[in-house]
UniProtKB/TrEMBL annotation:
Record SUPFAM superfamilies: Periplasmic binding protein-like II, Winged helix' DNA-binding domain
Classification via PROSITE patterns: HTH_LYSR
Start and end residues of each HTH lysR-type domain: 2-59
Short name of any one Pfam family annotated for the protein: HTH_1
Organism whose genome encodes this protein: Pseudomonas pohangensis
GO cellular component annotations of the record: cytosol
Family of this protein: Belongs to the LysR transcriptional regulatory family.
Protein name: Transcriptional regulator, LysR family
């Protein structure tokens, strides 16, 4: 019988191209996986997989079954999700993909608040690049994404809601040579290595032609890749020790380093950096009660962060 479980096994095997790795990912034994695939092949009456150069690859029949099975599995997932929606927040699940900066600002903390209020809700929250977040939403791997939305606002497949009210700043160590300049311009800024996650193309478009010390532009995507690229912007203050690197981060992330005198915030002439992140979800997919509740937690936390940043600016910089 063409059961969803057997189709999932086939999909995992093709994705991992190896029985051992696929079995590990599925949390079943390798013999059990082999038996499942054999039963599936017996059911359809054709060979779905073959071994080539040490890897398992789909035959033409396997590719055909995969195309149809992905649609079937997606339909089953949507059905289960609709059932969860009817049961409300006391049961069900929520899958969220977060961009790097939203994850450390409001994403994970809001998930913790939601869990505290609804402990029986199954939560899955992971971090990915802003491009991957949109892709995961599109492929229905997650219910909701929070990441940079500047490049997908015009995409009719998505609905986006801007969140970020927080500015990004550049920081350096207190003895950094750039502080010898009376006025710091973007031209001076790009003479030093940047520490950050990768930036969308609209940021790269505003950089001076000579910026190789700060990072490089990806020729395929137009993204700006910092000289020191981080998947998750944590422990940023450590990069300032005995280094001329410049860290880009929201104020909240660098608060402790600023208070301890380990970091200095730079004021850049005619340049202000904002990370335009927000909610991302599919236009043709209803939001579950869990998604709506999580979004409310995120909005509340973002408002708290903005208020705290206002206080910090006044306290630390008299602005």
């Amino acid at each position: 019988m063409l059961t969803p479980r057997r189709l999932q096994h086939l999909l995992a095997l093709v994705n991992h191209a190896h029985f051992g790795r696929a079995a590990h990912a599925l949390n079943i034994s390798q013999p059990a996986l082999s038996k499942s695939i054999q039963a599936l092949e017996a059911e359809v009456g054709v060979t779905l997989l073959e071994r080539k150069h040490g890897e398992v690859i789909p035959t033409l029949f396997g590719q055909l079954v995969l195309r149809h099975s992905q649609a079937a599995l997606s339909a089953e997932a949507d059905l289960r999700r609709e059932i969860d929606m009817l049961t409300g927040l006391e049961t069900g699940s929520l899958k969220v993909a977060l961009g790097p900066y939203p994850s450390i600002l409001s994403g994970f903390a809001s998930a913790a608040r939601l869990h505290a209020k609804h402990p029986d809700l199954d939560l899955s929250v992971h971090v990915a690049s802003w491009r991957e977040v949109a892709e995961h939403v599109l492929l229905r791997k997650v219910d909701l994404g929070i990441a940079d939305i500047t490049t997908i606002r015009s995409d009719e497949q998505f609905i986006t809601e801007a969140l970020d009210q927080n500015s990004g700043y550049f920081f350096c160590r207190p003895e950094h040579p750039i502080l010898g300049n009376a006025r710091i311009s973007l031209k001076e800024l790009v003479q030093y290595p940047w520490v950050a996650t990768r930036f969308p193309p609209h940021v790269a478009a505003n950089l001076p032609p000579e910026h190789s010390a700060a990072g490089s532009i990806d020729p395929l995507t137009g993204d700006f890749i910092p000289a020191i690229e981080l998947n998750v912007p944590m422990q940023l203050g450590e990069f300032l020790k005995d280094s001329n690197a410049l860290v880009m981060a929201p104020l909240k992330v660098m608060e402790q380093a600023l208070r301890e005198g380990r970091a200095h915030r730079l004021i850049i002439s005619n340049f202000k950096l904002r990370v335009g992140y927000g909610f991302i979800y599919l236009r043709d997919r209803s939001l579950s009660p869990a998604s709506l509740a999580y979004m409310q937690e995120v909005r509340a936390m973002e408002a708290e962060i903005f208020a705290k940043d206002t206080v910090l600016n006044a306290e630390l910089f008299n602005t």
